[in-house]
Amino acid sequence: MVGSVVAAAAVGDALEGFGNVKADPLPEEFVFDPEAAPAALNDAENGAGGAEDERSKAVVLGRNVHASCLDVTEPDADDEETGEREAYMASVLAKYRKSLVEKTKHHLGYPYNLDFDYGALAQLQHFSINNLGDPFIESNYGVHSRQFEVGVLDWFARLWELEKDQYWGYITNCGTEGNLHGILVGREVFPDGILYASKESHYSVFKASRMYRMECVKVGTLVTGEIDCADFEKKLLENKEKAAIINVNIGTTVKGAVDDLDLVIKTLENCGFKDRFYIHCDGALFGLMMPFVKRAPKVTFKKPIGSVSVSGHKFVGCPMPCGVQITRLEHINTLSRNVEYLASRDATIMGSRNGHAPIFLWYTLNRKGYRGFQKEVQKCLRNAHYLKDRLRDAGIGAMLNELSSTVVFERPLDEEFVRRWQLACQGNIAHVVVMPNVTIEKLDVFLNELVQKRSTWYPDGKVQSPCVAADIGEENCACVLHKSRAI
Fold first, then answer.
1. Which candidate in 404, 405, 455, 484 is catalytic?
2. Where N6-(pyridoxal phosphate)lysine occurs, residue numbers (predicted)?
């Protein structure tokens, strides 16, 4: 989490002016010390909690939005004649657009591709397009985009090697929904199964376990962020009587680590779980990048996996959150229910679904195709290596996983700098996710500013890197101890 810490008093002040709401003081356990930010409590939803011996870390919360919210007010009686309200709203939107342009210039920490142009689709914004129900069954509601949705799903099914008559899927409202659906399918296939997920899995995986009241076992990770299959084997053997539902990360949230799918499958079979497991692959970002990386292991339904999900607003570059969820057709009947009101079948998490999102995805897939995505993947990987090398040349500890465009490095000391560049932080580390819109020029501006700021963070004039060996490995740490060992 990034941003400054909101003290209890500040939250109270912000809420006091909001209608008749009177904010009670925050409980003491929710009041954090800003100075303790880099050290703080690991958020269990980020997969780091659970072990008594884990180091306590403080959570840095963002700013309270009530202090800067735009109120909704009733129009005056003469507004229609004077046009003052229209002029005011136009002014607000113009200022907001200007702020978006500025924020986009300093967008580095989150995996969203901001390099897109959907001007050709503006003509469709006048329609309420809703893909409620099953994508493959037309409902009574006629203003839909199922023909685009199924075309997109067919493209992804081919990518992951599953025949048209063997898959089911839909365009989700976000990557989290894909995980919620994949894990729900696994739970329906194995109602008493235990959910296994590495501690560096996305928080939505642990949200799913709470929502579905599933027993969840957190598995340790290697320093790269990849699942530790030795620990996975140990925990499987402790629960041999129950089937296993496994979340496999095709790129972890913080370090961009790719779990070894083949080793996960081998571990399951060696532990006697043959035909008693369901694998959901969370490929939010790298699920679409990996097929275009040479020598990368394949994510394919030719292997015994149950579902794959990716985000559409990340590498693809959709202007609204969305995603793609694909599973085996044989599994979906356990979830689906016929709905007479829709004249369709319900098998999704949400009821109404954004009908514009499939059109945006269809448009991009047609424009870029496999070759276009391959070029963008190669560009991202090249630029990520450039950033990692420049950071190390500047004496900053940094790590880049082999199949990733997520560069992990020492957390900047200044939270204002973190907010300015919209960096995602966890404990002692931060990361930059190199997307197609992240150019060498943008990285140079960031690097030059970071190096200049570091000279002010250490008043003695000697820049001493903190030790982050526990987070990114000794070979990637630039502290005095590990740097001297490397030499």
1. 404
2. 314
